[in-house]
Amino acid sequence: MTSPSPNPVLVEALRGGTVESQHRGALAVVDAQGSVLLALGDIDRAVFPRSAIKLLQALPLVASGAAERFGLSDEELALACASHGGEPMHAATAAAALARAGQDHTALECGAHWPYHDASLKALARSGNEPTALHNNCSGKHAGFVCLGCHLASDAGAEARRFLRGYVQPEHAAMREVTAAVQFATGFDLAHTARGTDGCSIPTYAIPLRYLALGFARVATGDGLSTGHAAAAHRLRQAVAAAPQMVAGSGRFDSRVMAVLGERVCCKVGAEGVYCAALPERGLGVAVKMDDGNTARAVEVVMAALIEALLPLQGEAAELLASLSEVQLKNWNGIEVGRLRASAALRHGLEPVIAA
Amino acid sequence: MTSPSPNPVLVEALRGGTVESQHRGALAVVDAQGSVLLALGDIDRAVFPRSAIKLLQALPLVASGAAERFGLSDEELALACASHGGEPMHAATAAAALARAGQDHTALECGAHWPYHDASLKALARSGNEPTALHNNCSGKHAGFVCLGCHLASDAGAEARRFLRGYVQPEHAAMREVTAAVQFATGFDLAHTARGTDGCSIPTYAIPLRYLALGFARVATGDGLSTGHAAAAHRLRQAVAAAPQMVAGSGRFDSRVMAVLGERVCCKVGAEGVYCAALPERGLGVAVKMDDGNTARAVEVVMAALIEALLPLQGEAAELLASLSEVQLKNWNGIEVGRLRASAALRHGLEPVIAA
Q1: What residues contact A220, with CB distance under 8 A and at least 6 apart?
Q2: Secondary element (H or E) of residue A37
Q3: Is ipTM > 0.90 here?
Q4: I need a labelling partner for A293 at 20 to 30 A (CA). Which of A69, A144, B66, B166 fits?
Q5: Are A21 and B110 in contact (CB < 8 Å)?
Q6: Separation of alpha carbons B231 and B224, rounded Å
Q7: pTM to 2 decimal places
């Protein structure tokens, strides 16, 4: 990250009419053949994709037959691709997915944390209870890993037990399937790249934005994927579009955008300012990383500006995306004190890919 | 902020051994005569200091005689300089300060929000109650403004009422005193700089880091301040050192550092990645601004590295600051997944000012 030419400023935070803070980053727009339609900043530096690739990590759950075997619903599949807010509907759906494989929350290896969703946190506190692993934002993904492990175990006889525990380890049979799916989809060699441990304890592999975007272009089109993965990608996109409230939650970007745009966009945020999206009608994949890791406000503005550029939008969809690419900031008294907005460099940079 | 040469990377976030995210910024170390001992990045761009200058904003509370008139305690004066976590001790101290002037929480114009301190938020939720303006992180500062207004009103006869309400407005008599104190201390012309509205609804004026650092060098030494402001600065530094738990709260940087270093450092964080500090034994002031506005993790690492460089530290103090300038990051299972650390550019840049 000590490149002589730093990544461009993509988002500005204004107070009054003055730029108070700014966020640099890089993004790639790529088609399923790997052609780069747009690159802003350095798209060849490997970045940890974190939760932005949960859909890729869920491909084996469907492609293996586990999802069909256990009869997972749209909600449960969408939750497998989610970083959710720990709302009651999310915790209940994770529990339901585990129950289909005869498991419960004690099978989850993601750790427990309080709900990210503010009202759900306070309601849980009021109830006098503590959070469980079901409230972890990754519980749906982990429930999917548990289902995959149970499926693999079913053919393993006396060996079955080892498929159920330790699935967060890179060498576990289920995690090997997950890692292989990410490698196949992105076409990037994960055996020779940096590996870190994610917040939920599974491995995360550093992948350049160019390859992350390619992976999501393949998800968008099915091109370049195995038949099984292409069908799984299609099934997961459908599930997410059918149950967008599962992917993030009340008031959250991914849920709001997909509730309005349906299957036109399949987007997913990741920690440390990463975003990936598949745009089927354009046959494109998108990947973004903010240098400063800002997920709380910056990367959503970039993704909103990207969607505005890449898709023709009208009515409610146009209004929603406009409100997300330039955001009013209010203080504790409800007074508007500033704005978040896509920078001129980002708006100008997107011009070559604007939808006709 | 579209300078051709961007500010240097001051902090790196690593996952495993790989840099995952990075934070750029600028800092100034200045003496009370305005000599710049160290500048990293652009120290002449005006930035909103936000809550980092609460001590300067509290100077009129003491210099006017209001603090003495109402008998404000160390705790109450420290809280006037605070961005606190809304712990019960903070809310109670704000209420006590208001009561000394015959007022209560309804006089506060900062708005209400839930405590930033996690356990206090949950305890309040469990109690079934809602937060009041006393829980606002700025309630102590606002209680000070109310006391100042009551003091000014006491000589105003029939006009008194207008000194009590509307104190967040720039033209209010109390706020004019506050703004004048900031201008005198920093030596920067606030009449001709950008003005924004802060989170607590008072005005915030854009000031270059060079002048913010000068203001804190003057606080450190008294040099260049009026006799009244110099005495007030000394009183406030004493109060903060005597009651450091009031300035931020349990587990927070400013409280932890000042609990160990006492009057050797008087430091204060502000929103959007700003930090200011006075270092009396070196006669220096310090000001920092992160480009990306990151207060949550980045700017504290910079301030810790600055204190390590500027003050000879031993024992508990050395250990504490070392743990704050290179921070272990753990995940939900308590596994260490990475580190926050001062960048090589920052460590190298600080070499010229390292204490003998």
Answers
A1: A32, A266, A278, A279, A280, A282, A283, A284, A285
A2: strand A36-40
A3: yes
A4: A144
A5: no
A6: 12
A7: 0.96
